[in-house]
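Input structure tokens:
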């Protein structure tokens, strides 16, 4: 099984694993509700935070709408390293699914170097990107890409030849 197949299976980008993914999300939401019993999930926007008592750093933030991870103006889940404050994990979600139009929906960073080590570009919970690889892994020390996969609508596709690749978006 390739790295991408493992990730796709784990993160639920195909219909067969959807119940598993939803179960994981329900456990996450249940854990949030247990951690913050005074703020029950209901039909409104809520923000949950967790702070490291030793450093005072907010180590976890989660934005929810109607009991699902959802945030229109930023990542719905953010984790920070307690010692450095570096954002190490971001999930951009819409209606409980990874979704972001202008960048990767799932991002991991190395706490020590700040290097982005993992990116997943998603639309409606599925790996999807028109102008580049939808799945990217990088070496934490060098930032060198170690693996990439091109995907459309949750399915891996052949990478275009370098000459046929679209120009990167300005930014």
């Amino acid at each position: 099984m390739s790295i991408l197949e493992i990730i796709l299976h784990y993160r639920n980008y195909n219909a067969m694993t959807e119940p598993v993914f939803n179960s994981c999300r329900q456990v996450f939401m249940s854990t949030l509700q247990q951690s913050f019993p005074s703020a029950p999930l209901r039909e409104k926007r809520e923000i949950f935070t967790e702070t490291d008592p030793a450093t005072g750093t907010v180590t976890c933030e989660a934005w929810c709408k109607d009991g699902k991870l959802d945030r229109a103006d930023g990542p719905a889940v953010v984790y920070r390293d307690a010692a450095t404050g570096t954002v190490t994990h971001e999930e951009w979600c819409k209606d409980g699914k990874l979704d972001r139009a202008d960048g990767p929906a799932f991002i991991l960073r190395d706490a020590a170097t700040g290097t982005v080590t993992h990116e997943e570009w998603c639309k409606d919970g599925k790996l999807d990107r028109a102008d580049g690889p939808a799945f990217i892994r990088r070496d934490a020390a060098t930032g060198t890409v170690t693996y990439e996969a091109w995907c459309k609508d949750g399915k891996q596709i052949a990478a275009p030849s370098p000459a046929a690749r679209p120009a990167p978006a300005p930014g």
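DSSP finds two helices and 14 strands in the chain. Helices lie at 3-11, 18-35.
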